[in-house]
């Protein structure tokens, strides 16, 4: 899921400093800028006719909530550092040129009757029902350290009050505190990451094509490593293999023989969340494709262009994509007024997706107490849809009503394995190969949020099939 980790961590101290310097001026300017001052308690606003519902985040949870929400019932405000929704299941394809980046994004503004703030939520005050927001950075191509300062130097925080709040801020990439990962590896959590990876793959080939390099130097530059053999890492490796064996083979016929792809995992298998027969099918397909699966490995460090792993030692690479699961976002870590798990990883809600009256959390940043569910788009969007029904008042006025209890429907898992093959593991059926691939493609075309992308996704698949991928670097 961000990326670069897509969200940055600001130290509380710094926020306080900025706040101390600028609070007066900010509040004054907000008052001038907005018809209703954002920091004024909603209850005291003169023209208050609707409750203000603030949604934090513009990912799967937030967008499925917005889709089902009766937006005429509330004054809806969305706060996110991303002005778009990212269609995460298609990011591996966008990173390897099978799809254009545009097809994996939906703009937040415009499609809904909402007010959008392009900002980070820095602080949640449940007692005063206010949020502290910091204007977000413009998009960055590739950050050195995604946890470092990520705001305009002159940005100033402001406050926003709410009547109802939905927190759906997702999660960060987990690195297990492995040295050098944030500085030297690439993440695949957001569209900006996909763009950076795509750029880097092509850069590796361009560099390796210079005549003054030795074969060993070429092999190092064209060694592509994926750490983490879950669905995201495996799908990326498979898509990369497709790119190498088709368009890059055509464009760089003399050097493509030096290219290699490896998946490195600490466990004894890949795609462990799938049925064992499907995981084996994937392993066999990867073996046929020449994707090197390295299991039971312990990554010690990621240096610049060098993976240090036990028991192999040092392995040089041109691109290393790190995909080993998720961890808590900084907002979750520093918000202590809300119940969390022992590991400080996510908010804990009740069965109604709620902490206290009027405050809810959905998606990767939250779990229901005692009912652990996987951190997937499926769960996030089901929770968002359920919450929309609750907030629309379709389930009656009683906040404790049984029908307001969230029930997860397991729709199964899918993973694309490249070259027209996939695996599908659903409670009703299992499929592999071409049939699974058709199901995978149909499902993700259909799941695109807009008709524009529902048309663009198959359009680009067809165009790329006919004419090859567009591999211009920009
Ligand atoms: C490459 C990839 C492929 C995946 N494939 C699948 C798949 O095939 N099937 C599946 O079910 N799941 C898949 N997932 C997992 C799925 O994407 C996540 O579970 C899902 O995105 C979680 O939704 P969310 O709304 O909780 O968070 P996200 O979708 O991550 O959205 C979080 C939002 O919060 C915003 N935000 C962050 N911090 C703040 C803040 N402080 N203030 C305000 N806003 C903030 C972010 O900018 C973002 O808009 C995939 C994930 C990745 C990365």
Describe this structure in words.
- With 474 residues, the chain is an alpha/beta fold.
- It folds into 2 domains: 241 residues, FAD/NAD(P)-binding domain (3-Layer(bba) Sandwich), CATH 3.50.50.100; 145 residues, FAD/NAD(P)-binding domain, CATH 3.50.50.100.
- Helices cover 32% and strands 23% of the residues.
- It has 12 helices and 25 strands.
- The protein has an 8-stranded mixed β-sheet. A 5-stranded parallel β-sheet has the order 10-17-11-12-13.
- Strand 12, helix 8 and strand 13 form a beta-alpha-beta unit.
- Helix 5 runs antiparallel to helix 6 and helix 11 packs across helix 12.
- The longest helix is centred in the first third of the chain and has 22 residues.
- The protein is globular, with a radius of gyration of 23 Å.
- The N terminus is likely disordered.
- The chain binds flavin-adenine dinucleotide.
- The site of flavin-adenine dinucleotide has 36 residues, from helix 2, strand 2, helix 3, strand 5 and helix 10.
Would you tell me the structural class of the helices and strands? alpha/beta
Return the CATH topology of the largest domain: FAD/NAD(P)-binding domain
Share in helix: 25-40%
What is the subunit organization of this protein? single chain
Tally of strands: 25
Q: How large a portion of the residues is in β-strands, by DSSP E?
A: 15-25%
Poorly predicted regions are 1-37, 40-46, 139-145
Strand arrangement across the biggest beta sheet: 7-6-5-2-1-8-21-20
As for the number of domains, it is 2
Bound molecules: flavin-adenine dinucleotide
Query: Treating each run of at least 4 consecutive H or I residues as one helix, how many helices?
Result: 12
GO molecular function, one term: NADH dehydrogenase activity
Organism: Meira miltonrushii
Keywords: FAD, Flavoprotein, NAD, Oxidoreductase
Domain External alternative NADH-ubiquinone oxidoreductase-like C-terminal: 412-470
């Amino acid at each position: 899921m961000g990326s670069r980790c897509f969200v940055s961590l600001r130290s509380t101290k710094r926020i306080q400093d900025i706040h101390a310097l600028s609070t007066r001026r900010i509040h004054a300017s907000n008052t001038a800028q907005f018809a209703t001052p954002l920091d004024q308690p909603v209850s005291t606003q003169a023209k208050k006719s609707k409750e203000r519902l603030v949604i934090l985040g513009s990912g799967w949870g937030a967008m499925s909530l917005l889709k089902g929400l009766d937006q005429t019932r509330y004054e809806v405000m969305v706060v996110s550092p991303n002005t778009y929704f990212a269609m995460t299941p298609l990011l591996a394809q966008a990173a390897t040129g099978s799809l254009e980046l545009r097809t994996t994004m939906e703009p937040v503004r415009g499609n809904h009757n909402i007010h959008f703030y392009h900002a980070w939520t820095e602080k949640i005050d449940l007692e005063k029902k206010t949020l502290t927001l910091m204007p977000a950075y413009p998009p960055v191509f590739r950050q050195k350290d995604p946890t470092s300062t990520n705001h305009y130097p002159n940005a100033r925080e402001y406050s926003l009050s709410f009547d109802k709040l939905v927190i759906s801020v997702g999660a960060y990439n987990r690195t297990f505190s492995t040295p050098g990962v944030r500085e030297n590896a690439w993440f695949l959590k957001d569209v900006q990451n996909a763009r950076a990876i795509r750029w880097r793959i092509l850069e590796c080939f361009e560099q390796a094509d210079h005549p003054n390099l030795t074969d060993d130097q070429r092999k190092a530059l064209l060694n592509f490593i994926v750490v983490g053999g879950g669905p995201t890492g495996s799908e990326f490796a498979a898509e990369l293999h497709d790119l190498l064996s088709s368009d890059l083979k055509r464009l760089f016929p003399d050097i493509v023989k030096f290219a290699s792809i490896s998946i490195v995992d600490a466990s004894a298998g890949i795609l462990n969340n799938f049925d064992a027969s499907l995981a084996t099918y994937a392993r066999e397909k990867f073996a046929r494709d020449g994707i090197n699966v390295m299991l039971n490995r312990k990554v010690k460090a990621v240096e610049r262009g060098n993976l240090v792993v036990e028991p192999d030692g040092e392995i040089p690479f041109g691109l290393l994509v790190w995909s080993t699961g998720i961890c808590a976002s900084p907002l979750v870590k520093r918000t202590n007024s809300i119940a969390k798990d022992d590991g400080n990883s996510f908010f804990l809600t009740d069965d109604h997706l709620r902490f206290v009256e009027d405050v809810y959390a959905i998606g990767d940043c939250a779990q229901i107490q005692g009912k652990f569910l996987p951190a997937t788009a499926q769960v996030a969007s089901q929770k968002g849809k359920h919450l929309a029904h609750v907030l629309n008042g379709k389930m009656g006025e009683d906040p404790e009503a049984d029908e307001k209890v969230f029930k997860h429907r397991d729709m199964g898992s899918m993973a694309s394995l490249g070259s027209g093959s996939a695996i599908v593991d659903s409670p009703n059926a299992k499929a592999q190969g071409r049939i699974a691939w058709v199901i995978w493609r149909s499902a993700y075309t259909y799941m695109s949020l807009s008709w524009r992308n529902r048309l663009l996704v198959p359009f680009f698949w067809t165009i790329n099939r006919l004419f090859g991928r567009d591999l211009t670097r920009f």
